[in-house]
Amino acid sequence: SQLLGSLRQENGVSPGGGACKMRWQLSEQLRCLELQGELRRELLQELAEFMRRRAEVELEYSRGLEKLAERFSSRGGRLGSSREHQSFRKEPSLLSPLHCWAVLLQHTRQQSRESAALSEVLAGPLAQRLSHIAEDVGRLVKKSRDLEQQLQDELLEVVSELQTAKKTYQAYHMESVNAEAKLREAERQEEKRAGRSVPTTTAAATEAGPLRKSSLKKGGRLVEKRQAKFMEHKLKCTKARNEYLLSLASVNAAVSNYYLHDVLDLMDCCDTGFHLALGQVLRSYTAAESRTQASQVQGLGSLEEAVEALDPPGDKAKVLEVHATIFCPPLRFDYHPHDGDEVAEIRVEMELQDEIVPRAQNIQSRLDRQTIETEEVNKTLKATLQALLEVVASDDGDVLDSFQTSPSTESLKSTSSDPGSRQAGRRRGQQQETETFYLTKLQEYLSGRSILAKLQAKHEKLQEALQRGDKEEREMSWTQYTQRKFQKSRHPRPSSQYNQRLFGGDMEKFIQSSGQPVPLVVESCIRFINLNGEDPLVEGCTAHDLDSVAGVLKLYFHPQVYHTA
Amino acid sequence: SQLLGSLRQENGVSPGGGACKMRWQLSEQLRCLELQGELRRELLQELAEFMRRRAEVELEYSRGLEKLAERFSSRGGRLGSSREHQSFRKEPSLLSPLHCWAVLLQHTRQQSRESAALSEVLAGPLAQRLSHIAEDVGRLVKKSRDLEQQLQDELLEVVSELQTAKKTYQAYHMESVNAEAKLREAERQEEKRAGRSVPTTTAAATEAGPLRKSSLKKGGRLVEKRQAKFMEHKLKCTKARNEYLLSLASVNAAVSNYYLHDVLDLMDCCDTGFHLALGQVLRSYTAAESRTQASQVQGLGSLEEAVEALDPPGDKAKVLEVHATIFCPPLRFDYHPHDGDEVAEIRVEMELQDEIVPRAQNIQSRLDRQTIETEEVNKTLKATLQALLEVVASDDGDVLDSFQTSPSTESLKSTSSDPGSRQAGRRRGQQQETETFYLTKLQEYLSGRSILAKLQAKHEKLQEALQRGDKEEREMSWTQYTQRKFQKSRHPRPSSQYNQRLFGGDMEKFIQSSGQPVPLVVESCIRFINLNGEDPLVEGCTAHDLDSVAGVLKLYFHPQVYHTA
Q1: Cα atoms in the 13 Å half-sphere on the side-chain side of B98
Q2: Which of A97, A563, B216, B496 has its CB surrounded by the most CB atoms within 10 Å?
Q3: Which Gene3D superfamilies does this chain map to (chains A, B) (predicted)?
């Protein structure tokens, strides 16, 4: 790093002196402490700003989603432009797809609310908390720095005392050395003087005696005096050296204590709570986002449930229920005998037998042929439907595949050129082809079935008449005519209102008035249950569908459940 | 519903006639089929539009997040305005908080990418698929309607044939009745004529014989002729009645077949694949959103890991490592004997004993007192730190609480007025108070420890000297002086470069050149491990921290691991 590099440079040109190097280290330590603190404050401020701007993005997103949900909710709208459609809006259970749509909009609104809440937390408490931590770090670093400065001052004070002690020791030692030199000088002169007096002892012992004696005495006193002086200085020197040595030990201990403990402790002091607080802010952030996402996952769950509840037979039953007047079969066409005609059945006179018997046989054989053909067509029809549904279902695999493989960087590209889209186009072609074939077969089947129904009815009537002809042809009497007429007249005239009473009416009255032994709705429901009840796993039909149909039956017999619910 | 209402009205005014009512029903059935189809197409188009607009919102969100991540990544930036800071950017492992920051930005970028991908799926395949389904529904409804129309035409044809058959029967029956009347008339006249001829048989038998005979013969021929005519008409009538009755059976069968089967089958045909396809689109939607969210949850997991990896001791060790030159303790201050002074230790002369012994005792007692005091302060210090960290940690509970309770509708309110914020303010006050007290105690502790270190050093020196004084005071010889001097001179002059070789240098050379038996970093690391290794569950220190420190030790002994990694 630059810092390290500049340090090395400075180290390169710095004088080797220990105290000087230490001073440099101490000031760099302060700088380093300040730098760490500054970096942290900047990081925290940057994080706070990030949170605020992230909150803005989230709020914008929330508003976009809200506007979207609002737009489509209010123009229940386009779908409900006529009052007729609004009734579907008001009764979403009427059509299960509309329920999905309502749940989707609800999910979107919930997403909007969650994003708004997230935005609020980021811009509010989290950004504020980060600012607080930045303040805390600034304060702590300032205080730690001041404390470090104080400890450094104390350390340098001790070092300075060491210099003083060293100088004192040096001065006293110098004096001690000088005193010793002077003592040695005096001792040397004393020795010299004593040595000169020995060879002159016999020649001038008497004439120089008193002088020499006083000189010797004087020399001895000087040595004594210098000896005392030396001892005094030596003691002073020892004391100064002791102080110097003690100061040395003290300084080394102080330096060691400062470098090994104080510096690290002050770094810890700067750190106090920083990682803890930062970690908690970031955890709050993840918690807030996770909560948002958990809620969204829940919303998606509701949507999936609504999709599971898509209910074709139920929807159809609702349509039949709402539009009962339209779908209820009309009264049977009755036989209206012409004025005075008392015959109300097919008569096979002798003269007609030659004509009717072959005709009955002809109908019989057409019936047999038509039955086989219609059954064949029905088989093809069912297989085609299966194939069609498979194509429809397979089409969606594409959507997911393209999602899985689409690289997000290539967004907004034209979707008509890629291979997936070409494949989808091929599938759509296949779907339409299958659909056309299905409808052709359906047409054939419905026509066939209609012909079959008519042939069947004629066939039954003819067989009835032929059998009756064999047995009773000549037993016919007025009485029987009258009886039959009476039986017929027992049916009262049908009421034109019975349709309105289909749901909620009296069953017996209905049957009496309509002449239908089993009402259409009931017959239709039972047909459905029979058809699908045999194999509940048949395509598209679930136990749920059967429930829906059974529900319609229930409504039919207990309409008040529907009206009060 | 209005539709139902209007139907009832129409029903009220409609003539009771069956065929007329049926015609009305049939046209309403067609309308109903068209209406169902129209509602479905509109729903699908609305859903497609929703997907496109939802995609726009998502894309905007994605761009917002991308811009945000870009802004803060590029101004690595504000934090890295100097080259010094950029080194931190480039080496995020250097400071664990910067790693968190980098992961947060990475997470934001990932969110942006996911939203873009979601947007693409919604606007592209999903919207397109919905349009396709709308097309399919339109086509199917049109075809079903045409087919229904055809079946209705056939049905009405049969009904019309019935009317014709009925009219034919009525006409023939009329003729038959007329023929019978004429026969009866002829028979009556024949009878009358026969009755008149009986009373006149005796009176005018001869004169009116031939005339009466021819009249009787003529009357019998007329009866015969009329009888034949009647039988002919009666047979025609029977045939016509038979046709009428057969047509009646056929019509009733056809009507029943149409109402009970065809109508429902055609509704099914309109529905073909609709619920299936719609369900698959909505499932694709939830799958796409779920995928987005799963990726975000994963991103949050990474962020949580980064937060878990916040590592105060590791960060400190990195700082020490990078700034080794600044934090390495300086060389010991050595004893510099004054020119010629051969004493290098504290000397306790007889004359100094009276001074030094009490002084040593004084230091001893000050040491004892200081030790106790410093330990006391240290205990308070640790308790205060604990309290401080608890306050810091408790502050964040607030953030989450406010998130939990904040009603999203009251967003953007001033945060300075609510009780939560007031409580947070109180906590901040408490935190700063605790912090101030903590720093006061830290200052006391550090000062005390410094004094302790210095006293300890002096105490040891004095004790050493006193013991030595007792034992060797008078055994000191020149030889010992020289030996001691030799031992000292065995330490070579320290190299000024050893700091640069702290990491990656030769251990033995370092120890020799620095005079430090154990390098600072090693000592510091071991101190940490000893301190925290005893109780790994002590506040803030985890096994992970110990690992970090151990890692620094490893780096110290094997620096190439760091440089090559």
Answers
A1: 21
A2: A97
A3: Arfaptin homology (AH) domain/BAR domain (1.20.1270.60), Rho GTPase activation protein (1.10.555.10)
